[in-house]
Amino acid sequence: MLPNQGSLIPISAAWQPIPQPMRNVKEGFIMPITTAKSLFTYPKKHLMVFLLVFTCAGLLPGFKAHAAGPMVADSFTGPVTQNEINSFKSYIQGVEPVVWPNTGSMQGEYAQGTSGENIKAMGLMYEITGDTAILDRMIYFCDVLLSQRNDILPAPYGHRTVWTNTIAPVWPGNNTGTASADSANGDPVGHLAYCANLILQHPAIWNTSVAIGDDYSHGATYKQRAMTFMNEADYVVNQFIFPSLLDLSNGNKYYFSTQSPYMSGGVFPWNQQMMISYGLQNLAAAHAVLGDNPTLVSQYDGIVQTNLNWFFSNNTAKQTYTDSKGNTAYNWGYNPTLLGGEDSNHASLDVAGFYRAFLSGRYGITSSMMMPFANMYADVMMRGPNDFAGRVDGTDGTGHGAPTTYARTGNIFLAALRPDMFGDLANANMPNKTTTSLATFARFMWAKNQLNTAGGDTQAPTTPTNLTAAAVSGNQINLSWTASTDNVGVTGYNVYRGGVFVGSSTTTSYSDTGLTASTTYSYTVKAKDGAGNQSAASSTATATTTSPTSPGNLALGKTYNASTTWNTSYSADKAFDGSTTTRWSAANGSLNNQWISVDLGTAAAVDQVIVKETTYQRVTGYKLQASSDGITYSDIAGTAGTTLGASKTINFTEMTTRFLRLYVSTASAVPTINEIEVYNQ
């Protein structure tokens, strides 16, 4: 029997005492039991023919069905064509969902493994086309996915005890012994909820029978199938993810419970946050369509919103800066405690998750909030044809952080925001306009469709006019100009000093700081839009700075902050109290991407910082950063280095700033700073 609408009755309960009535999946293939039984009633020579057929079809253990030929794009411009849709439809018919024992990790296979990415790809293509043949194949994959859940699947691969000491509703991460299960279980929940949500968004098909039948007794009609998927996804959330995996006591932020053997008590990495939110946001949307449980919708949405805000509204969890092309970009780390250097593999998963939340329209994420991701990829990580950086800051590492000759697929979505990179991504990932990756094809079709339906904006804004420049001190010149216009909308302005980019503004004014006294400077301004188009340069304006001043240590008696602290005896103020006998220390275990800052109270001219690492010399990488608001920081040119030692004097071109911070990118042990002094010499 099927669960009632809105209920949380697990299939495992509804199906007892027959765990899987319609298909035999114990041995790793998905042949109907009736077919399997009938084979053994035929004469021997007929049986051999059947076995040959099934072997060729890839339906026996150890065999996999393969699609004939790659998927083909007709072009990288214009609308998605019927030929492209048919190419996708043909290919997915030859792709099968993975079942035990053909994987060593069911949660991995359906999280960021091939089967999971294939489900997402089918969902995207259904959203583009509305073709129910694609939806039906997605439903089939979700049918099989649900059948592999630990509490539904019979032994030996199912009905295993999990670390919760129960036969929990999870997709295990191993194939023998006590079943492992972690945040990767968020993605299978997300697939079921995504499929349910897509069905429920189209009431016209609710009462139509699903064309592929109902071999798993999940519901004959589309709505019945959606209800099963939604209820079973809810069941995993409320029986495993909420009570066992998550600790939501930190204001609904994602932390692992202390019960979890994986990262016990730790903060969720961004890519794993995306797994959990993928399920919750689709469940919230599905329940909202039905109007059956407003309280649950509010709970799910509230959790997702909190964790999205953790990134977008909190610059202690990321860096927002102006990249070399004059565009605003993000730099972030593996989790919210790390401020930079996320590797390209996990960054792709992060971006895909944020983009899904953006597309949902439920959480106040705007295109301008997403654009710094696109700028990061187009301006920083894309270094040339088939040359993509291994980290989001443009550097390379090893493993997940190694450079690639192709774009990781989560970043393909960003081409819808920065059309100028679409062609380069397509040529890198789909040479000859072909691919055998469902994720690659579907995401290029998505971006292509977005660009086509959005009109593919190529029109530049008008040129800014009436630019004026006025010196206000020995190190600052203020600029103002008349606004430009654009067919879609102006998103900001790039400012150039002597023809060299120096900064950007979202308003019609800009303050250029860090200048040399008694010096004449010339400026131009260009307007830009969301598609990356720039106007011609404005007319030139000039101004001459005034004479300088020389105050003492500007950091004394101010307000201070730090990324983390060991305890109150090693708080941030201890590094600004004028004494080297006290010190700030980062929290236990926090070695890299730590920082300590001072609020000077008002904008002040500075050109020198002295850092004293007297007690322990542990810093192995550092730089100074400045900010006007204490939220968005920019690197101070020429201040990066490796070691500090007992005392390090760092000189730089005079600039005006209110907030100044020492950013420790790497350290051999927990960084600890005795004193920081700030001067204008």
> Major sheet: size, sense and barrel closure?
6 strands, antiparallel
Q: What global shape is seen?
A: globular
Spans of at least 5 consecutive residues with low confidence:
1-65
- Going by helix content, strand content and strand pairing, the class is alpha+beta
Q: How many helices in DSSP terms? A: 15
Rg, alpha carbons = 29 Å
Keywords: Carbohydrate metabolism, Glycosidase, Hydrolase, Polysaccharide degradation, Signal
InterPro entries: BG_Antigen-Binding_Lectin, FA58C, FN3_dom, FN3_sf, Galactose-bd-like_sf, Ig-like_fold
Protein name: Fibronectin type-III domain-containing protein
Organism: Paenibacillus ferrarius
Secondary structure topology:
Layout lengths: L10 H5 L7 E2 L6 E2 H7 L4 H14 L13 E2 L9 H11 L13 H6 L2 H16 L2 H16 L38 H15 L21 H24 E2 L7 E2 L13 H21 L3 H19 L6 E4 L5 E4 L12 H17 L6 H15 E3 L2 E2 L33 H8 L4 E2 L2 H16 L11 E7 L4 E7 L7 E8 L2 E6 L3 E5 L6 E10 L11 E4 L14 E4 L21 E2 L8 E19 L6 E9 L6 E2 L12 E20 L4 E2 L1 E5 L2
Antiparallel strand pairs: 1-2, 3-10, 4-5, 6-7, 8-9, 11-12, 12-15, 13-14, 13-16, 16-17, 18-20, 19-24, 20-23, 20-25, 21-22, 21-23
Helix pairs in contact: 6-7, 6-8, 6-15, 7-8, 8-9, 8-10, 9-10, 10-11, 10-12
